[in-house]
Structure to design on (213 residues):
Protein backbone atom coordinates (compact mmCIF):
# COMPACT_ATOMS: atom_id res chain seq x y z
CA UNK A 1 0.00 0.00 0.00
CA UNK A 2 2.82 2.40 0.89
CA UNK A 3 4.70 1.54 -2.29
CA UNK A 4 1.64 2.35 -4.40
CA UNK A 5 1.22 5.73 -2.70
CA UNK A 6 4.84 6.86 -3.10
CA UNK A 7 4.71 7.77 -6.82
CA UNK A 8 1.66 9.94 -6.17
CA UNK A 9 3.38 11.75 -3.32
CA UNK A 10 6.55 12.16 -5.37
CA UNK A 11 4.65 13.58 -8.32
CA UNK A 12 2.79 16.03 -6.09
CA UNK A 13 6.07 17.21 -4.58
CA UNK A 14 7.54 17.72 -8.06
CA UNK A 15 4.45 19.65 -9.11
CA UNK A 16 4.68 21.87 -6.02
CA UNK A 17 8.33 22.63 -6.81
CA UNK A 18 7.52 23.43 -10.45
CA UNK A 19 4.62 25.69 -9.40
CA UNK A 20 6.82 27.46 -6.84
CA UNK A 21 9.50 28.10 -9.47
CA UNK A 22 6.90 29.39 -11.92
CA UNK A 23 5.39 31.68 -9.29
CA UNK A 24 8.79 33.02 -8.24
CA UNK A 25 9.75 33.60 -11.87
CA UNK A 26 6.61 35.60 -12.62
CA UNK A 27 6.94 37.64 -9.43
CA UNK A 28 10.54 38.52 -10.31
CA UNK A 29 9.83 39.20 -13.99
CA UNK A 30 6.98 41.57 -13.10
CA UNK A 31 8.98 43.46 -10.49
CA UNK A 32 12.57 43.42 -11.80
CA UNK A 33 11.86 42.86 -15.49
CA UNK A 34 12.73 39.84 -17.60
CA UNK A 35 16.25 41.02 -18.44
CA UNK A 36 16.89 41.97 -14.82
CA UNK A 37 16.15 38.46 -13.54
CA UNK A 38 18.51 35.48 -13.70
CA UNK A 39 17.90 31.77 -13.32
CA UNK A 40 19.87 31.95 -10.07
CA UNK A 41 17.49 34.64 -8.78
CA UNK A 42 14.51 32.36 -9.43
CA UNK A 43 16.18 29.32 -7.88
CA UNK A 44 17.27 31.33 -4.82
CA UNK A 45 13.72 32.62 -4.31
CA UNK A 46 12.51 29.02 -3.97
CA UNK A 47 15.64 27.93 -2.09
CA UNK A 48 16.64 25.30 -4.64
CA UNK A 49 19.72 24.88 -6.80
CA UNK A 50 20.14 26.06 -10.38
CA UNK A 51 20.34 22.40 -11.31
CA UNK A 52 16.88 21.85 -9.83
CA UNK A 53 15.51 24.75 -11.86
CA UNK A 54 16.78 23.16 -15.06
CA UNK A 55 15.03 19.91 -14.20
CA UNK A 56 11.74 21.73 -14.71
CA UNK A 57 12.47 24.44 -17.26
CA UNK A 58 14.90 24.73 -20.16
CA UNK A 59 15.51 28.38 -19.25
CA UNK A 60 13.94 31.71 -18.34
CA UNK A 61 11.86 31.85 -21.51
CA UNK A 62 10.12 28.57 -20.77
CA UNK A 63 9.41 29.61 -17.19
CA UNK A 64 8.02 32.95 -18.36
CA UNK A 65 5.66 31.38 -20.90
CA UNK A 66 4.70 28.18 -19.08
CA UNK A 67 1.46 29.50 -17.64
CA UNK A 68 0.43 31.03 -20.96
CA UNK A 69 1.09 27.64 -22.56
CA UNK A 70 -1.31 26.07 -20.05
CA UNK A 71 -4.09 28.49 -20.98
CA UNK A 72 -3.47 27.92 -24.70
CA UNK A 73 -3.67 24.15 -24.20
CA UNK A 74 -6.98 24.67 -22.41
CA UNK A 75 -8.25 26.81 -25.31
CA UNK A 76 -7.42 24.05 -27.78
CA UNK A 77 -9.32 21.52 -25.68
CA UNK A 78 -12.26 23.94 -25.40
CA UNK A 79 -12.46 24.22 -29.20
CA UNK A 80 -12.32 20.44 -29.46
CA UNK A 81 -15.15 20.06 -26.94
CA UNK A 82 -17.59 22.62 -28.43
CA UNK A 83 -20.98 21.15 -29.44
CA UNK A 84 -20.95 19.83 -33.02
CA UNK A 85 -24.00 21.90 -34.03
CA UNK A 86 -22.07 25.17 -33.55
CA UNK A 87 -20.71 26.81 -36.68
CA UNK A 88 -16.88 26.92 -36.68
CA UNK A 89 -16.65 30.66 -36.03
CA UNK A 90 -19.15 30.44 -33.17
CA UNK A 91 -17.23 27.50 -31.70
CA UNK A 92 -14.06 29.61 -31.74
CA UNK A 93 -15.83 32.58 -30.19
CA UNK A 94 -17.34 30.55 -27.38
CA UNK A 95 -14.04 28.78 -26.67
CA UNK A 96 -12.22 32.11 -26.45
CA UNK A 97 -14.80 33.59 -24.04
CA UNK A 98 -14.88 30.39 -22.03
CA UNK A 99 -11.12 30.75 -21.66
CA UNK A 100 -11.54 34.11 -19.91
CA UNK A 101 -14.44 32.79 -17.81
CA UNK A 102 -12.45 29.79 -16.55
CA UNK A 103 -9.09 31.55 -16.20
CA UNK A 104 -9.34 31.47 -12.43
CA UNK A 105 -9.76 27.69 -12.46
CA UNK A 106 -6.66 27.21 -14.62
CA UNK A 107 -4.32 29.87 -13.23
CA UNK A 108 -5.22 30.38 -9.56
CA UNK A 109 -3.84 26.99 -8.52
CA UNK A 110 -0.38 28.26 -9.48
CA UNK A 111 -0.40 32.06 -9.18
CA UNK A 112 -2.91 34.83 -8.45
CA UNK A 113 -4.77 35.82 -11.62
CA UNK A 114 -3.59 39.40 -11.11
CA UNK A 115 0.04 38.21 -11.35
CA UNK A 116 -0.75 36.27 -14.53
CA UNK A 117 -2.28 39.39 -16.09
CA UNK A 118 0.71 41.52 -15.09
CA UNK A 119 2.98 38.93 -16.73
CA UNK A 120 0.90 39.27 -19.91
CA UNK A 121 1.96 42.91 -20.03
CA UNK A 122 5.62 41.96 -19.47
CA UNK A 123 5.44 39.59 -22.45
CA UNK A 124 3.92 42.31 -24.63
CA UNK A 125 6.65 44.79 -23.67
CA UNK A 126 9.68 42.46 -23.82
CA UNK A 127 10.81 41.86 -27.44
CA UNK A 128 12.50 38.51 -26.84
CA UNK A 129 9.49 37.16 -24.94
CA UNK A 130 7.00 38.56 -27.44
CA UNK A 131 8.88 36.91 -30.30
CA UNK A 132 8.88 33.57 -28.48
CA UNK A 133 5.20 33.96 -27.60
CA UNK A 134 4.26 34.69 -31.22
CA UNK A 135 6.29 31.72 -32.44
CA UNK A 136 4.48 29.43 -30.04
CA UNK A 137 1.16 31.03 -30.95
CA UNK A 138 1.75 30.12 -34.59
CA UNK A 139 2.14 26.48 -33.56
CA UNK A 140 -1.05 26.63 -31.46
CA UNK A 141 -2.96 28.25 -34.33
CA UNK A 142 -2.01 25.40 -36.62
CA UNK A 143 -3.22 22.88 -34.07
CA UNK A 144 -6.53 24.72 -33.62
CA UNK A 145 -7.00 24.86 -37.39
CA UNK A 146 -6.51 21.10 -37.56
CA UNK A 147 -8.98 20.58 -34.71
CA UNK A 148 -11.55 22.72 -36.56
CA UNK A 149 -10.96 20.86 -39.81
CA UNK A 150 -11.37 17.47 -38.14
CA UNK A 151 -14.50 18.70 -36.39
CA UNK A 152 -16.02 19.72 -39.73
CA UNK A 153 -14.75 16.73 -41.68
CA UNK A 154 -12.43 18.84 -43.85
CA UNK A 155 -8.94 18.34 -45.21
CA UNK A 156 -6.98 21.22 -43.71
CA UNK A 157 -4.46 21.07 -46.56
CA UNK A 158 -7.15 21.36 -49.24
CA UNK A 159 -9.63 23.73 -47.58
CA UNK A 160 -8.27 27.14 -46.46
CA UNK A 161 -11.22 28.04 -44.23
CA UNK A 162 -10.01 26.52 -40.92
CA UNK A 163 -6.67 28.34 -41.09
CA UNK A 164 -8.31 31.58 -42.23
CA UNK A 165 -10.86 31.50 -39.39
CA UNK A 166 -8.16 30.83 -36.81
CA UNK A 167 -5.95 33.59 -38.27
CA UNK A 168 -8.79 36.12 -37.93
CA UNK A 169 -9.50 35.14 -34.33
CA UNK A 170 -5.82 35.13 -33.41
CA UNK A 171 -5.49 38.61 -34.88
CA UNK A 172 -8.41 39.81 -32.78
CA UNK A 173 -6.83 38.35 -29.65
CA UNK A 174 -3.49 40.02 -30.38
CA UNK A 175 -5.12 43.41 -30.98
CA UNK A 176 -7.21 42.97 -27.84
CA UNK A 177 -4.18 42.06 -25.72
CA UNK A 178 -2.16 44.96 -27.07
CA UNK A 179 -4.92 47.50 -26.46
CA UNK A 180 -5.60 46.16 -22.98
CA UNK A 181 -1.92 46.14 -22.00
CA UNK A 182 -1.56 49.83 -22.89
CA UNK A 183 -4.78 50.94 -21.18
CA UNK A 184 -5.47 51.91 -17.60
CA UNK A 185 -7.75 49.07 -16.48
CA UNK A 186 -5.70 45.88 -16.14
CA UNK A 187 -8.47 43.73 -14.68
CA UNK A 188 -9.70 40.40 -16.00
CA UNK A 189 -13.13 41.95 -16.51
CA UNK A 190 -11.62 44.67 -18.70
CA UNK A 191 -9.82 42.30 -21.07
CA UNK A 192 -12.85 40.02 -21.31
CA UNK A 193 -15.13 42.95 -22.13
CA UNK A 194 -12.65 44.19 -24.73
CA UNK A 195 -12.49 40.70 -26.25
CA UNK A 196 -16.29 40.56 -26.58
CA UNK A 197 -16.41 44.02 -28.14
CA UNK A 198 -13.67 43.28 -30.67
CA UNK A 199 -15.11 39.89 -31.63
CA UNK A 200 -18.45 41.55 -32.33
CA UNK A 201 -16.71 43.85 -34.81
CA UNK A 202 -15.12 41.05 -36.85
CA UNK A 203 -18.01 40.51 -39.28
CA UNK A 204 -18.83 44.20 -39.91
CA UNK A 205 -15.14 45.12 -40.11
CA UNK A 206 -14.45 42.56 -42.82
CA UNK A 207 -17.64 42.96 -44.83
CA UNK A 208 -18.63 46.58 -44.41
CA UNK A 209 -17.59 49.83 -46.09
CA UNK A 210 -15.26 51.80 -43.81
CA UNK A 211 -15.60 55.15 -45.53
CA UNK A 212 -17.48 57.94 -43.83
CA UNK A 213 -18.83 60.85 -45.83
Amino acid sequence: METASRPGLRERKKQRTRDALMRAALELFTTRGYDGTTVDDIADAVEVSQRTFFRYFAGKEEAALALTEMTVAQLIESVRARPPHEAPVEALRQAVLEGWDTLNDIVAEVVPVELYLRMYRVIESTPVLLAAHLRRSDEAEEEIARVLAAREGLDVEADPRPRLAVAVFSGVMRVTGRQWSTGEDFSLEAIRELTVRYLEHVGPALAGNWRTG
